[in-house]
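Look at one such:
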Amino acid sequence: MHATRAVTDGDSQFGNSQVARQTNNATSRSRQTSGKPRRRSFLRRVLSWGLAIIFLVLLLPYLLILLYAAPQVQPISTLMIGETLTGRAYERQWVDFDAIAPVLVQSVMMSEDGQYCAHDGIDWEALNLVIDDALEGEATRGASTIPMQTAKNLFLPPHRSILRKALEIPLAMWMDVVWSKKRLMEIYLNVAEWAPGIYGIEAASQAYFGVPAAKLSARQAALLAVTLPNPIKRNAANPSSGMNRLAGIIEKRASQSGAYIKCLYD
């Protein structure tokens, strides 16, 4: 009888232990199962917030373009913001469009965007030629219009990339819809970099030639215009022979640009 009870007690202890293990396993599986939905839910929330932030970042420039249509607003560029964040000083004095010498406007148009008054923000013919050259493996030339350059200066990083170009195009077209051609040119001339730490045509005119933008001569305007593609290496006050040659070409084109600037000077 005692032996039988011993075996029975052992069986009972074994059964209790097995039940306990099964219970623990079931509890563990239950925790794992309940944990997975929580992790999935957390990841979904993170993804949703991430997509919302990306959407807002992409939308913000379009909203700012609406704000910048107001003539009293004086936008700054991403490069100016970068100067401020890194503690570097920069010069920029905003100047209204009507206080800029027309010959400077003419020179910049002839140098940077001869079809400015005719296109909708994008010179599609020039852009298609660049794409064709790239597909054929040939060296490409610039096809950025003044609206595209303005979009880059205001909202995008300066580093060249296909992504940046893809973002430039709709922004440039939206600017052309929202802003007048005169307002767009005014903003461009006031945010463009003309020398290291020098932004806007007024600061550039004073730094290079000691005169206000309204008093620039035809030659000074042409030299400033050919400085724009490479303001870090080109110096309008101390031009190389190559710069002088280009300035001569731009000066001649500017003097013959009457039909091209009708959208700015009625």
In short: Strands lie at 193-195, 198-199.
